[in-house]
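Weekly sync notes, structure subgroup
Attendees: PM, AL, DS (notes)

Item 1: joint prediction request from the bench team. They want all two components modeled as one assembly rather than separately. Inputs as received:
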Amino acid sequence: MNKSTEKEYLRFSRLNRILHVCMIVSFLSLALTGMTLKFSYTNWAVVLSHFFGGFETAGFIHRFAAIIMFGVFFSHLYDLRRRKRTEFGTWRKMLFGNDTMLFNKKDIKDLIGNFKWFLGLGPRPKFGRWTYWEKFDYFAVFWGITVIGSTGLTLWFPEFFTLFLPGWFINVATIIHSDEALLATGFIFTVHFFNTHLRPEKFPMDIVIFTGRMPLEEFKRDKPGEFEELLKKGELENYLVDSYPPIVIRTIRIFGWIALTIGFSIIIWIVYAMIFVYR
Amino acid sequence: MLKSNFTLLHVKKSFLFSFSLTLLIFCTNLKSSSQENSVCFSCHNDKSLKGTRKGKTFSVFIDEKKFSNSVHGSLTCISCHVDLEGKELPHDEDLAPVNCGNCHTSEYEQHESSLHGKALLKGDQLAPHCYDCHGKHDILSAKDPNSPITPLKIPFLCGKCHQEGAPVQQQRIIHQDHIIENFSESIHGEGLLRKGLIVAPSCVSCHTAHSILPHTEPSSSISRKNIASTCSKCHAEIEIVHRKVIKGELWEKQAHVLPACVDCHQPHKIRKIFYDQGMADRDCMTCHEKLDIKSSKDGRSLYVKYTTLKLSRHLNIACSQCHSEVNASHSRPCDAITKQVDCSACHAEIGNQYLKSIHGQYFTKNDLNAPSCKECHGTHSVLGKTDPKSPTFPTTVPKLCARCHREGQKAAVRYSGDEHQIIEHYTESIHGKGLIKSGLTVTAMCTNCHTAHNVLPHTDTASSINPKNLPTTCGKCHHGIEEQFRQSIHSKLVGKTDKELPVCADCHSAHTIRRADETGFKLDIMQKCGRCHEDIAKTYFDTYHGKVSQLGYTKTAKCYDCHGAHDILPISDPKSHLSRENVVRTCQKCHPGATRRFAGYLTHATHHDPKKYPFLFWTFWGMTALLIGTFILGGIHTLLWLPRALKMQRKLKELSKNTVKNKNQEISEVKKDDGKNNE
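Output from the run, pasted for the record:
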């Protein structure tokens, strides 16, 4: 009763939340279908490939998911341009302000401070709206989409690309595409999962990316820099919203569990393939 | 020869009287002139002249004209009547019998050891002397049509004694009857007597003139052993006519197992058509059609269903032609039988093949498991392989072989190789399905590959399934494929290597052959190629084509899609599918937009070879370094964070416990208030 009246801090816009869900669905689909080819020498790849309805259907799903991923990417770029206009006014304000996604001096300080905290040599840094590891994840996606996306297109249309590229470039593209994908899935399903969901205070998952909301207590603890900034400006009230009803939360948790399970399964499969049946 | 002998004799004698050559000649003339033929004929010309021998009186008239026309006309009387030599004329009576052997040594000896001669020695009154056939003073050359021994007259001459009713025929044991009648009706007699062909055989052509012996005598011209060579004196080319059943040379070499000419062509009754057998089947069947007839040795039934034989392929073959040891002169002709029927007597070539085959080898070693002819072909019921009821009809052959070669049966349990469940596998194979399910009698079954009678293990270089011979064996049906294969690098004719080259079975297997357009086969073939091309197969599986194949899909390019199947050639060969001229077209089969640059795709690329594929090698290691680096950084960050985060978590829990306690207190207070309000 009391809880329902408690306001929560709105961290993510609706578009960002939708984009992230799309990205999860797309990313998991890409990973699952792509891994069947990369680890085609394992039994699970054969099973999975048949589960998807054959390599051709799997390939279709892979390319469809890739289109969604490109959609997410370009929607986000479009949104950035829009927000520059509506929220910041200039690129400069947006890119070099307090809430920038770009790495800045504070991030270096935070990184050093965080390591000190890990080792018990100092207090936990007062993180702002975006921590340095969140920024790293954000740019990893930029890098990943560029690298995997471009090589993926080469593999999708080899006949076109070999009109101006040598044939062996297809081989190079294959290696880059598949190894970068391994890096992406590996990183997301271990480091990102830990940093965001599995760290003890968030365990088993942090659903802020789906709800967009986080309890004030948690906000204060996690992003003290941003909290203090908002208090100082007196804008905190603008971001306080009602929490979602339990049914929505439960649905979101189920979705989260599915995504996490698939992610962990992929990690187990990869480890199995790399260690036990690698050739 | 006769004359010279005679002169020589004189020369010797004359030597005794004279030392000078002139005197010798003179003396000889003088001596003989006193005993000239004219002197003899001065008495013997008298038709009423009588003489006696051993108390019997008979005419001693000699027709001088006949004598001088005879072959001996130029000889003197005393040349033959040697006991009158130097005697005063007229001479005593009871002259010694003339010995023709003085001059005709070999003929005389032959006659002496012949049936006739022996009988003479025994004093047989009916035995013929030389003169009984040749005459005495009127002997004519056999070429003279008036001679009694001219071919046309010989049947009559022999018939004097051997015709029905003649004393010899009645009083002596002669196995044949109606000899002269039968002969005159036979094709030989017809030729000789009715058509006047003097080349047609008379009695002496088979029995000889002087060496006449009974057929039981091994040296006889009509013994079982010699009859073939006797007949082939005239029927020299008869082998060719009989080749289908008897390989010519065996006729003489293996006379003991083969039916002799006379078994089919009865002596004296020789006809143009196939004859009533020497041993009539009817005779055999009088005993063997009894249901309860049993062998006295092992008690097995000896019953023969005659209709079975008559419905078999051997319907025109008489019992005695196979059971060739039967002897018609025995009261039970079959008691002469000592051996089993030898089919190779007629089927000589097949018999030889069989003996060389693994079945035959075991058979010669008296292996009880070894199949002989009858195990596959049956006995009296033998049918041709074209008869659907025959066990050797194509669709039934697998069942026939399965009797021994099915798992657990006597041949299969002895087998130590790798091919197991061959019958089951064959049945499921494309050949087996074609034969059994589709009923295609042209489909390959056991004997098409293994041969029927030349069956040999594949390790034997003479075997039809020896790697050396396999392409030819498969090529019997798959001729077009064989032609392609012969020109491929896998063929011994093209591929010059000391390594073992693959043959049909290495890719297609032996008994589990599948359709080449079947998914299972398509996927399997890569393992097959990979058995030899180990590295190149591995690298194939590193590329998209290989990975998809590995997942169990056949749509991407497999070995043969690019390299060709039976016409595979090295890339350096202009005819290869992957030669510079052809490679783009090969890619275009699946990638219609493929260009020469597209064909530069490395279908067997590996990122493990820095020399061959430096780009791929360094790309891979660059990517791997990036991956490892990222994970090390991320990993360290996470691992350091974890203990601190756990500590933080504990603190938070304590905090929240406190807050919960406080809240609970609040809640209970509220409840109390509510209760009060309700009252």
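Discussion: Chain B touches chain A through 49 residues (CB under 8 Å).
Action: AL to compare against the crosslinking data before next sync.
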